Amino acid sequence: MAQRISTGLSDLPNTIDAFAEAAEVARSGLDGRADLCVCFVGAHHLGELEAALLEVGTRLRPGAMIGCAAAGVLGPGRELEHGPGAVVWAAELPEAEVETFEISGEPGTGPDLLEGVPDPGTPADAVIVLADPYRFAADSLLERLNEERPGTPVLGGLASAALDGASPLLCDGEPSAAGAVGCLLRGVELTPCVSQGATPVGPEIAITAAEENVIRELAFKPAIERLGEIVAGLGPGEREAASSGLLLGIVIDENRPEHERGDFLVRPILGADRESGAIAVGERVRVGQTVRAHVRDGSSADADLREALALQAGAVGSPGAAGALMFTCNGRGRDLFGVADHDADAVEAALGAPVGGFFCAGEIGPVGGRNFLHGFTATLAVFSS
Q1: Which DSSP state fits 104?
Q2: 3-state SS class at 95
Q3: Is the dihedral of CA 306, 310, 315, 318 positive or negative?
Q4: pLDDT tens digits, 341-352
Q5: What is the pLDDT of residue 314?
Q6: Cis previous bond, 319, omega within 30
Q7: Domain segments of the chain: what residues?
Q8: Using CA atoms, how far apart are residues 200 and 248, in angstroms rounded to an integer?
Q9: Is the pLDDT of residue 252 over 80?
């Protein structure tokens, strides 16, 4: 039996009306009961969360349901970056098993001390995670899942709207007091798609001296000096983009003979010490790793997303995608691209299938077979028909 996905989006200001509309639209696109429902609740509606959940539960009666608070939401071909926004994403997954979970662990909690992490002996083809950035150690969870479930894609995002100093989460029809919620998916036809929105420039170079997240030497020269040489060798357009902020892409899988756009984990350069020539980046590094300079602007982010989606459409094959969950950075949208609905339009054009998602305070997705927390990124869970 085929997987089937439907998404309802509403901009109505009344919470009950908004979620009634979104849930009804989502229900109308399914043949039967939803096996999984994911809700994204705009900040405008957080004061009436229970009423929203009641509407969704009554109309869809999903087998499993998770959700989170969102500064902005998106649906098929449309993004609501501001104002009232409600999204109900529903999926019929006939061959799948869905197991929800709630995990607790304040920021700074080590991976082994997190409470509620699913037993690693429980199989999963993919994991969806929604977390509160104020109350949860997302990096620790990803470190643990990478260790316990190597190669299993984890997709999701950090909630981006708050109420009373916390970002509300939802699990199985009720508000959750945990720091993260999510689900294990078994027997599901799903592939991950990650677009970090950056373009590689200049040559690949090796790290020859480093400690923790500080790179002292690149190809046996001080890191600042080597990067200066790279920027000086760029064309005018790339040099202009680099002037707005140079990024560093770190190869995760060194076993590949060639490294393309999706093989680099892109991280910002956090600072530089001109006296020593060292730079600090937003990721731990080690001697021997290959890196490459990257630039990011609206044009590069657009090209990267469309290239990633084209590859995804080819990988899904016939009869195509049933739909997708999308987690896009709240630094994208109109501010980055200069137009409305960019990411939602791109997904609809490439996959021709319903998408639902939200603007995140951090996006989760795999690069080189390991799962990471990203920024300025769009990650997708694409479900095959």
Answers
A1: B
A2: coil
A3: positive
A4: 999 999 999 999
A5: 82
A6: yes
A7: 4-195+301-384, 199-295
A8: 9
A9: yes
